[in-house]
């Protein structure tokens, strides 16, 4: 019989380690972790120990010394964008089943942002971001006309996003120009002063 079902939403940072939770108050004698879509077994555990699937063997591990105390957490090393999705932990205790779902999202925050001016053109760019970032321009003092800019976004083979935007500055402009790149997790701003200095701000 199925005793309980629970769910957790997780957000982990690209290339870092991530722990998917599966905690039960009783001793676990039998358990498995599966990926939902496409459905695939990651690891199964019983009194003989644990067995990992080929595709996860080098990257996933249970805390085996703690399973008997009800800790069925799964450690996933070096998280990739492709790891996003739903994971299912099923544990058997005294003939009853406990099921826990972890919905994993992966994020690569905005880390490095660059701004430079070449003639009348100011360019702002950043690379290796996930999910797709937003880029906005602003000026000080504020401009009452729309800033004419061209933004391009490129997705790499690793599914990360590179973003670049160019702005044409009117002759004799004495405004200070700033570019902000943001994702759900964080944002960074780059400012070009009248003297051509670059100022970088973290949020």
| Run of helices and strands | EEEEEEEEEEEEEEEEE
The percent of residues in helical segments reads under 10%
CATH superfamily caption of the largest domain: Immunoglobulins
Name the shape in a single word.
elongated
The figure for the number of domains is 2
For the biggest β-sheet, the strand order reads 1-9-8-3-4-5
Query: How is the biggest beta sheet arranged?
Result: 6 strands, mixed
Structural class: mainly beta
CATH fold label of the largest domain: Immunoglobulin-like
Number of helices: 0
Oligomer state of the chains in this structure: single chain
CATH class bucket of the largest domain? Mainly Beta
Radius of gyration in whole Å, from Cα? 24 Å
Number of strands: 17
Keywords: Cell membrane, Disulfide bond, Glycoprotein, Immunoglobulin domain, Membrane, Receptor, Signal, Transmembrane, Transmembrane helix
InterPro entries: BTN3A2-like_Ig-C, Ig-like_dom, Ig-like_dom_sf, Ig-like_fold, Ig_sub, Ig_V-set, T-cell_Activation_Regulation
Protein name: Ig-like domain-containing protein
Main location: membrane
